[in-house]
Amino acid sequence: MTSHRRRILVLAYYHGLGHVVRSTAIAAELHRRGHDVLLACAEAALPIPRDAGIPCTAMTELDPIPVPPAHPPAAAPGLPPRPRLAHPAYLQRCLEEEATLIERFRPDLVIFDFRVTGGVSAALKQVTSLAIFNVQFFRHPLAEIARPIFESLRALEVPPAALQKFFGDLVAVPDYAAFDPLSAIPLDMREPLISSVQEIRYVGPLLRQYPDALPAREVLKEQFGSAGQPLVFVTMGGTSLGFSALTSVLSGLRAFSGRLVIATGPNIPPDVVEAAVEERGLRAHANVEVFSYAANALAYLKAADLAIIHGGHTTLMEGLLCGTPLIVAATQPEQARNGARVERLGVGYVLSPERSLEDQVAALVPRCLADATLRTQAEQVSRALTVKGTEALATYLETEVFPVWPGEGL
Asked: What residue ranges define each of the domains in the chain, with the CATH number in brackets?
């Protein structure tokens, strides 16, 4: 236990799972080291920090985007709608709830992961803040939503000094500089970022559990009853935005024979995916398991001979550290840029949005499963990625941030 106990409030945005998972990971490490931690997130996400033994509380968050209809209506003409994250009523509610949390918990530090008012609320209460951002987020979605958020916050009469801290006092990048360099930040985002933060620190992947603590792949396959047959793990992330890609991927797996494990995430109902599995006759050749969320999903990912993922940052880092060959079916630009490293590292493929996802999956899955070199390369890459971001970030806070605090915001 640390002899310099601190109070740390963690604010996690909940749209998919990635932000809450990363926030829970660092909260758990700081809690393990003896600090007083409180994690706030949407009520629907509270089981994640609770399962990790982290004190937590609910706060208002945007409702999840529903699964899109099979034939969505055409967009209305005129100006594009205001991003949901920039709606004044949402921002006002966030500021009010965060002010109450800070007043009650009295933190020494606020950590926020894409909770867009986190840095502003901390500045308003003169508390130091640290943001968790992977660099590609500054290109999408921040490049599209930052300006309307600033406009709405100004309309709410947020003081300029607090607005300047939109990106926090410090930024932790949960990645490696070689993969996610600062040079990828768009020029128009650099000025507000530099005027806000005092330091940007690469800490490495923030995971609740690191795959090297799990048994070897063949042991896991035997535990899951998949010894002697190929195991393919599929997830399109925690939001409903990957539903269309997921159905296309399933169509491409009609000829697959083996064990197929599908994680739908919290916002795609498993029964909808079960219906898609039945419609495509996948159980004629494969043993199919569908679940929404499971604590042992990382073990399935490591056990897999191949994983088909959306390219979300947390899932991508988990896949690379598991040493599992990957196929990336990105559903938005940030995921596509994240996934590009899969091909650069020689550990898998990124599907082209210009071609049929179904056809690409049907061609690539048997090729990847038969490619022993791909597996060897994926395992070599995983052995090279040794930094544990939760430990690195917690140590950075304890050795370089906490000792020099002036007592208020940096």
From this structure: 7-71+81-208+388-404 (3.40.50.2000), 211-384 (3.40.50.2000)
